Amino acid sequence: MDHHYHQHVDFGLSREDSIDSNDRKGDENNNNLDLKRGSWTVEEDLTLMNHIALHGEGRWNSLARAAGLKRTGKSCRLRWLNYLRPDVRRGNITLEEQLLILQLHSRWGNRWSKIAQHLPGKTDNEIKNYWRTRVQKQAKQLKCDVNSKEFKDTLHYLWIPRLVERIQASSNSNNQVNIQKTNENIIINNNNNNIVPNVNFTQENYSSTTTTSSENSIGTQISDMSDNCYTNYPLNQGDYGEILISPTGGYVQQGDIFDDNNHHQNMSQLFLDDNVCDNLWNIDDMLFLQQQLN
DNA sequence: AATGGTTGCAACCGCATCTAG
DNA sequence: GCTAGATGCGGTTGCAACCAT
């Protein structure tokens, strides 16, 4: 278990005292005072896993009772779906997955479960946490709202192109990823089992399928993009929803940024520095850029 | 070493929707 | 059609681990 495995922490505060009204209804025949909350113990996990292995999942309230777990059905369901399921891949969100999350979120917003459907092994909770801890953090550092045009432009013109570039770099170094650029799509293929979805956006609708070829090559087809994603961004309208279409008016545009000497430098060059990229970009650069544009 | 602040994420909450009787 | 219970979802909370001083 990882370091976040809490050893039987006894919460004694308000959260312990409050039980969901539906749970209350669902457990009226139980003694609610016996219901346990807080972190799961190893013993509870084993009990739940063994019970599901023998009897299957579903009917969570009755499952919890039958398994002898002093937990609500909802708690059991959440523990199973987010942690214990064999096909859950926790941690290590890959570049491809990050790219997909950004793309899908720009289209669907906070529809975490819908986004998670396209990232096999990833839970909605994990994606939601990723968004809050990484993406929203960047917005906060830039002192702009995560839903603002400025920030979405920044994602569109800086973060996503850099992710694509890093995936390409990874492709060149280990030959695991192959990015095909066409006039309409970027198609990412790798030889891992990690990235599975094949998402094909169109203007009016979209379809998505999960595909795995006989060679175990997995395709992720993401959004329409022009051939030169740095200098010829933006892309076709509708790709990222209405907000990310046009660069006009945005403070991040044309692939340009200023360095400390007030010289332009191309954004793609800036992003060759992984340290910059890992933190999305240098906050000082962004603040300076904002000053220049104001 | 001690302490206080920050981060990442597991788990909970409340509400909406679905389903079975 | 109504109702109770079950399930699903997005938002929020709180804590262990980590980090800085």
Automatic annotation (TrEMBL):
- Key words, A-Z: DNA-binding, Nucleus, Repeat, Transcription, Transcription regulation
Name the GO cellular-component terms: nucleus
User: GO molecular function terms here?
Assistant: transcription cis-regulatory region binding
Limits of the HTH myb-type domain: 32-84, 85-139
| Locations listed in the record | Nucleus
Q: Please cite one Gene Ontology biological process associated with this protein.
A: green leaf volatile biosynthetic process
The record ties this protein, via PROSITE patterns, to:
HTH_MYB (PS51294), MYB_LIKE (PS50090)
> Any idea where the Myb-like domain is?
32-84, 85-135
User: Where do transmembrane segments lie in this chain?
Assistant: none
Q: What is this protein called?
A: MYB transcription factor
- Please report the organism this UniProt entry assigns to the protein: Solanum stoloniferum
